[in-house]
Amino acid sequence: MKSISYHLLKNFLFKSTEFSAKSICITCLFVFVSYVVTAQENSKIIEFSQLSPENTSKQNQASNIDAKKVKSLIVDLHPSVYLENGEINFYSQKPTTAFLDLKAMASPIKRDAKFESVEFVSIRIDQRNAISGIDLSKLEVFPNLKYIFFACSTDCNESQIKNKLTGLNNDYIIVYKSENQS
Question: Tens of pLDDT along 108-126?
Answer without folding.
Answer: 899 999 999 999 999 988 7
